[in-house]
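Figure 6 in text form: structure in, sequence out.
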């Protein structure tokens, strides 16, 4: 079946079965490999994208369910918040292996969009579903705080 989706600000057409997870359409059909496969059951956050600005797990989001929505991947993330997060990540050398980082960044941008100055507890609660195999959670939390500082100017 053919689907037209709004992806990173552009309309793209893809052929896929209705039950195909968005993750596989992004990676296999559209060759956008920044969104990672982690668990396949929406538990780890590696596959996080934004659907109408909200972080969602693309491994459990079906292509048939995104037709009227705007999908943003790590490749299309472009905002002042995203720039602040990227700057903080570089300044603090947040990633270790980096595998989970696109999902982490997508979630952090979602958090800072809702709450521009979160407490450590609010960060931990919001980021709970994003697993980091290297356990860089303290650096991720510090990166969120630093991004909030950068956003304040």
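Output sequence:
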């Amino acid at each position: 079946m053919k689907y037209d989706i709004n992806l990173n600000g552009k309309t793209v057409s893809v052929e896929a079965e209705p039950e195909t997870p968005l993750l596989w359409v992004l990676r296999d059909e559209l060759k956008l490999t920044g969104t990672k496969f982690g668990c396949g059951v929406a538990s780890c956050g590696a596959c996080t994208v934004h659907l109408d600005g909200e972080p969602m797990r693309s491994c459990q989001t079906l292509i048939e369910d995104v037709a009227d929505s705007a999908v943003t991947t790590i490749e299309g993330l472009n905002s002042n918040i995203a720039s602040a997060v990227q700057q903080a990540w570089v300044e603090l050398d947040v990633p270790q292996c980096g595998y989970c980082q696109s999902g982490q960044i997508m979630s952090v941008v979602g958090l800072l969009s809702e709450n521009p100055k979160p407490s450590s507890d609010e960060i931990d609660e919001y980021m709970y579903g994003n697993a980091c195999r290297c356990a860089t959670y303290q650096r991720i939390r510090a990166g969120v705080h630093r991004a909030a500082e950068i956003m304040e100017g």
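Caption detail: DSSP finds five helices and five strands in the chain.
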